[in-house]
Amino acid sequence: MEMYDNENTAHKSFDENYLSEELLQAQWAEFIELKKVITEIFLKKGSPITILDIGIGNARIVKHLYAIPEMWDMIEFYDGTDNAETCVILSRNTIKELNIEDKVSVYFLDAVNLNQLQKHYDLIITTWFTAGNFYPENFPFENYNLLSKKLDLSKNEKFDTIFTFAYKMLNVNGEILIGACYIDNENTRKKQELSYQKMGMTVITDAKDSFTATKERFWSQRFTKGKIHSYFQFVKQEKISFTPLDPYNYAMQIRIKK
Fold first, then answer.
1. 214: which residues sit within 8 A by CB, 6+ positions away?
2. Chain centroid, CA 71 distance in Å
3. Based on the structure, what is the number of domains in the chain?
4. Is 229:139 a contact under the CB 8 Å cutoff?
5. What would the pLDDT profile of 137-157 be if each residue is shown by its tens digit?
6. Which residues neighbour 208 within 8 Å (Cβ) at sequence distance 6 or greater?
7. What is the pLDDT of residues 22-34, one digit of tens each?
8. C-alpha pair distances (Å), 84 with each of 114, 140, 142
9. By C-alpha distance, which of 221, 249, 86, 250 is closest to 160?
C-alpha cells in the first residue's frame, strides 16, 4: 500500500484544516518560483513547453496554472503520474471539471517506472515535498521505532532510479524542478512531526533520522545541498541551483539543468 492509498491520510493531506501554516505557505512559495521557471524555459524555447508532473496528487498545480491564461498558454501539454489510485481519481476529476483533457493526461504509474512513458519533456517537476516520499522498499513501518539500527540514506536507490530516468527524459535544455523539499535540520524535523501529529498520525522516527515517518506509512526525507549533490552525481554541480522558499530554513527548491 502506498502513502496516499490510506483514505484518511489522503483526505487530511489535501484538507487545509489539517495542514500546518508552514506546509500551506510552502505550496505558494514553490508555485511562485515554478511560474518563473516555466516562463524562463518558454522564452528560451520560443514556443509552448511540455511538462511532466511526478506525483500529481489532486492536480493542484494544474488547477492554478490553468487559472492564469498567460501561464496556461505557455504549456503545450501537461502529463502527470501518481502511484496512488486515490490521487489519480482526484486529479482526473479536477481535469474533467476544468475541461482540459485535451491538454492534460494522468497516468497511474509508479515513478520507478517512468521510462514506460517513452516520452521526453522540457520540464519535469515534483512538487510539495514529493521528492522526499521515495522510501526504500520493505521499510519497516510497523516496528521501525523499536529497531536499534537507523536507516542509512547516504544512498537512496529509489530516488536514484526515479531521477536518473527523469534526467534521461529531458529534452535539450530541459530541467528537473524539485518544487519544495525539506531542509535537514532540527527545527524542520520538529515542524514535520507536529504536522503529521496534527493529521492524527503516530511518528516513529527521532532526531537521529534524516526523515520523518509514521505508522500510517507516511515517509518524508529531509535534504541538504550536499545530499542533493551526492544523489545527483551524474550532473555537474554548476547545473544544480537552490532557492530558499522561506527565511527559516524549512524548505528549498532545486533546479537541475541538463
1. 141, 196, 201, 202, 203, 204
2. 20
3. 1
4. no
5. 889 999 999 998 899 999 999
6. 150
7. 999 999 999 999 9
8. 15, 20, 20
9. 221
Q: What is the dihedral of CA 116, 121, 125, 126, to 10 degrees?
A: 0
Per-residue H/E/C for 27-55:
HHHHHHHHHHHHHHHHHHHCCCEEEEEEC
**pLDDT above 80 for 16:** no
98-114 pLDDT tens trace = 999 999 999 999 999 99
Q: Are 177 and 34 in contact (CB under 8 A)?
A: yes
Can you give the pTM of this predicted structure? Answer: 0.94
Closest CA to 181 of 97, 139, 240: 240
Task: Tell me which amino acid residue 204 is.
Answer: I
**Given the C-alpha cell 515513478, which residue does it identify?**
111
Residue 147 sits in which domain range? 3-257
Indicate which CATH number applies to the domain containing 227. Answer: 3.40.50.150
